[in-house]
Design brief:
10 helices; Arc Repressor Mutant, subunit A
Length: 317
Amino acid sequence: MHRCQIHARDIILLSLFRGYAIKLTALQALVAAIEEGSLRAAARRLHVSQPALTKLVRELELELASPLLLRHSKGVRPTAQGQVLFEYALKVVSELATATELIQQMGGQMKGNLNVAAVPVAMMLLIPETLRTYSRAFPEIQLRVSEEMFVEQLQKLRKGEVDMVVGGIPEGLPLGEFITESLMETRMVVVARKGSRHVRAKKLADLANEAWIYTGNSQQTGYVSRLFETHGLPPPPAGAMVNSTLALLALLGSADLLGLMPEQIIAHPLGQNIVRVPLEETGLALSVGIIIRSSSAVSPAIRHFISHLHRAAHQIR
């Protein structure tokens, strides 16, 4: 292990690779060069001269005894070794930024970024009110909310690309990997557009051959399949597959398709064009809550966001 002096503006990361001393500024230079595809653009982004940035990347290449960038007429692109280091460097830079924000927040400076992944159920029920109250209380926290299906969101959480997932809490989450906290209980009920012929159905089996909207990437995923399996029925035909609340509401309101929605949405302005199909079956019970990585530090920003989620959930119970 090299013996290095650690300066405040040039942190030395000794644990990234055993036996190597790698400067954070050099990692940032590599990340910028690969993301920008140009040394000139990367230097401009980091507010350094191009020769200085080139020197930082060259130091990395010498330290690792491997080429990291390929120069071509339009800029640069990573070598195979450069791509590996780039992926690890992203995590290092992100984790350090998170640690810095956490320390500042512990000192009372509520600044930084908060990345939240919300599945459609949460986006409809909880996120709007939570964003309204949280942004008012902490205007210097930059919120980023993404909406995708649960599988994609869980992968982002594993990679550290988001700080938390808000949505239905599934069974079988890996023990020890995640921490969950319930916000509210709801029920996914069968809905159709107003005036639809489907509202005359009495049993779920009556709708087994009709076209349904699936929230997911296949008929094997999502709440529709789970509802039918619960009642011993095969999944119904897919009329459409969507991965956003807006698409789900638009199709339900304009096409003669069936779908599942949280029962609270029917009385919400968002559900003004849809009605519940009065079936004998009561629907699919669902616990909506928060999922975070058990290994991640829960910052004050995250704790306050969870509190605001609880307030939003209380209003719609």
